């Protein structure tokens, strides 16, 4: 399998998004007022709240940025954050075990970016039954699956993935003034955000009657898999001129193949606004990407978890703004 290091600098994997919003969460003190009835006693620190952050992986810079936002919340809000990540975005069973570990550790809350929208639900129900607060970020849990196991309302922090992908797809579609073929690289199909991005991009592309969508294949969010899937698509459909990738990792895998095969005129858009993707836009190899503010999602997820621990009422949905990033906007 192709490694990320084949065409991304090692240092680059740790670079973050170029446009993350700033937050101002509530100020929380971990030190109570001194007990006046026993003036000789030293103040006793309040128990630090323990919050577990479960993410898909750290092989994708998007989640590195998400952790940065969560760490900022940890520092500002006076809590202790336990960060747990699976090996890959497809390591669903490992994510389930990470949640089980946090239940055993008796954390106060779990903030999770689930790799799968259905499979994590029973384990999260177990966490809720143990009195652990649950906050869902990035990829939304499946409502029907939650109802099936009796998991109550779980606050969600994320973006409108359908709308963000539609913006990117429309940007591509507007380039088609003559008959043209298009293709889509999907994420993990059991993930809600992957489905939403596919649907948004598909709607935008097919609204233009000049465009024929000839392929929509999953590359499971992976850079190396996207390289191979793109190769397969172009073997079957060599006339494709427009390509939507549901995340930047897949977009860069596609760009690598297209550059190597002499198809550099194909217009490719991604999703996530990784710093590497921004560099590809500036270099003219990527047409656009969607900024969904990973750090802000991490920050707000942890901030909501703390509010739940304190017994406060929180909104069921917190939407983070997305924006389309193009070469024109970077000038």
Strand content: 15-25%
| Cross-sheet strand order for the largest sheet | 2-1-3-4-5-11
* Number of helical elements: 11
Q: Report on the biggest sheet.
A: 6 strands, parallel
Gyration radius over CA: 21 Å
In CATH, what is the homologous superfamily of the largest domain? Response regulator
What is the count of distinct domains? 2
What is the level 1 CATH name of the largest domain? Answer: Alpha Beta
What is the H/E string? EHEHEHEHEHEHEHEHEHEHEEH
| Overall form | elongated
Average predicted confidence as pLDDT: 88
CATH topology of the largest domain: Rossmann fold
Helix content: 25-40%
What is the first-to-last residue Cα distance?
A: 36 Å
Low-pLDDT parts are 1-46
Count of individual beta strands: 12
Task: Please explain how this structure is put together.
By secondary structure, the protein is an alpha/beta fold. The chain has two domains: 48-158 and 293-320, Response regulator (Rossmann fold); 161-291, Rossmann fold (3-Layer(aba) Sandwich). It is 39% helix and 18% strand. β8 (240-245), α8 (248-260) and β9 (267-269) form a beta-alpha-beta unit. α1 packs parallel to α10 (294-309), α5 (161-173) packs parallel to α6 (192-207) and α7 (223-236) crosses α8 (248-260).
Quick structural gist:
The protein is 39% helix and 18% strand. The protein is an alpha/beta fold.
Secondary-structure topology with pairs:
Blueprint (H helix, E strand, L loop, with lengths): L49 E6 L5 H17 L2 E6 L6 H13 L4 E4 L8 H9 L3 E5 L5 H7 L6 E3 L2 H13 L6 E7 L5 H16 L3 E8 L4 H14 L3 E6 L2 H13 L6 E3 L5 H8 L5 E4 L2 H16 L7 E3 L3 E4 H4 L1
Helix pairs in contact: 1-10, 2-3, 5-6, 7-8
């Amino acid at each position: 399998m192709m490694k990320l290091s084949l065409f991304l600098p090692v240092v680059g994997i740790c670079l973050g998004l170029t446009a993350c919003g700033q937050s101002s969460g509530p100020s929380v003190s971990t030190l109570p007022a001194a007990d006046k009835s026993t003036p000789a006693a030293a103040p006793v620190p309040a128990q630090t709240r323990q919050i577990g952050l479960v993410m898909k992986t750290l092989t994708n810079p998007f989640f590195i940025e998400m952790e940065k936002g969560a760490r900022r919340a940890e520092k500002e809000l006076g809590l202790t954050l336990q960060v747990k990540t699976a090996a890959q975005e497809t390591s669903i069973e490992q994510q389930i075990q990470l949640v089980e570990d946090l239940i055993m550790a008796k954390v106060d809350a779990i903030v999770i970016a689930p790799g799968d929208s259905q499979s994590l639900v029973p384990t999260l129900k177990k966490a809720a039954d143990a009195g652990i607060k649950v906050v869902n970020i990035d990829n939304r849990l499946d409502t029907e699956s939650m109802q099936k196991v009796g998991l109550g309302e779980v606050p969600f922090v994320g973006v409108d993935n359908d709308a963000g992908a539609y913006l990117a797809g429309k940007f591509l579609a507007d380039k088609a003034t003559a008959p043209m073929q298009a293709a889509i690289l999907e994420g993990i199909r059991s993930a809600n955000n992957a489905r939403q991005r596919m649907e948004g991009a598909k709607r935008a592309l097919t609204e233009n009657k000049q465009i024929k969508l000839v392929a929509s294949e999953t590359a499971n969010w992976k850079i190396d898999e996207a390289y191979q899937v793109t190769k397969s698509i172009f073997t079957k459909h060599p006339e494709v001129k427009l390509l939507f990738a549901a995340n930047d990792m897949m977009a860069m895998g596609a760009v690598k193949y297209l550059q190597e095969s002499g198809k550099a005129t194909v217009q490719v858009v991604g999703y996530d606004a990784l710093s590497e993707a921004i560099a590809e836009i500036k270099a003219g190899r990527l047409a656009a990407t969607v900024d969904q503010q990973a750090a802000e999602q991490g920050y707000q997820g942890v901030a909501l978890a703390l509010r739940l621990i304190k017994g406060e009422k929180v909104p069921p949905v917190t939407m983070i703004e997305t924006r389309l990033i193009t070469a024109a906007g970077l000038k």
